[in-house]
Amino acid sequence: MKVIFAGPSLPDAASLAGEAIRVLPPAMQGDVLAQLEQGANVIGLIDGGFEYAAPVRHKEILHALSLGVAVFGAASMGALRAAECHPFGMIGIGRIFEDYRTGRLVDDAAVALMHAPTALGSKPLTIPLVNVSATLDAMEDRGLLAEGLRQELEDAAYAMFFKKRTWRGIVEQCAAIEEPARPQLLATLVSNFVDQKRIDALELLKAVQEARDIRSSADLPWKLHETAFRTRPTL
Question: pTM for the complete prediction?
Fold first, then answer.
C-alpha cells in the first residue's frame, strides 16, 4: 500500500495521485505508525502538523525504515524530516530538502505558511520563505530586480510572521520602494511566482508512483532500539 501525507504544498494531491495511492491529510504524531500497522509499504511525507498538534516523530520514520518501508520526504515537513533522517535511509527529494541537508536552510519556519482547513481544500493563504527565495531567484535570473531590491524584499519577508506574510505585505514593508512603484512590483512578483513547495511535492508524488509496492529486506547498517515511542497517547 502506498500512502502520501499532503496538504497546502499539494492541495490537489488526491486528484493527481490515482487510485493506487492513498492521500491523507498532513501527518501528525502517530500517523506514520498507524499506516504501518495498516500495511503501508511506501510512504510519502509532504506536509505535517506542527503548531496545534504534535508533529510526526523521527522514530516513527526510523521504525518504518527498519521494516524495509520506503519513506520519501519533500517540500515541507517532509523535507525537514528527510534532511534529519536521510543518513538512515529516508529519501529526500527536491530543492528544499537539499537546502536543509546542506545547511543553506536551517530554520524550520522557512516552510511554514497559513492555509485553509482540510475541509476547504488546504489552499495556501500566505507565502513561505522558501517560495519567496525561489521567486526572487527566478526574477534575478530574468533581470527583473534592481540592485539592492532583492535584499530589501528578503529582509521584509524574513521580518514577517508566517501567518501574515503575503506579497502585498512584503512590498508594503519595503520603505525604500516609493509608493507609485509598488503596484508594478507587486504585479511582477505575482506573475513570476515560483511555488517551490509544489514543485518538490510533485517530484515526490512521481517517485512514490514509481516505487515498488513491497517492503525491502535490505540489511541496514544500524539497529533500531525498541522504546515506548510506539505507545499512543491516551486521555
Answer: 0.92
